[in-house]
Amino acid sequence: MRPISRIVAVAVLVTATPISAQSPADGQALYQAKCGGCHSLDANRIGPAHRGVVGRKIATAPGYPYSSAIKKLAGVWTPARLDVWLQGPQKLAPGSKMFLTIPDPTQRAAIIAYLVANSTASAGR
Question: What is the mean pLDDT of residues 99-109?
Answer without folding.
Answer: 97
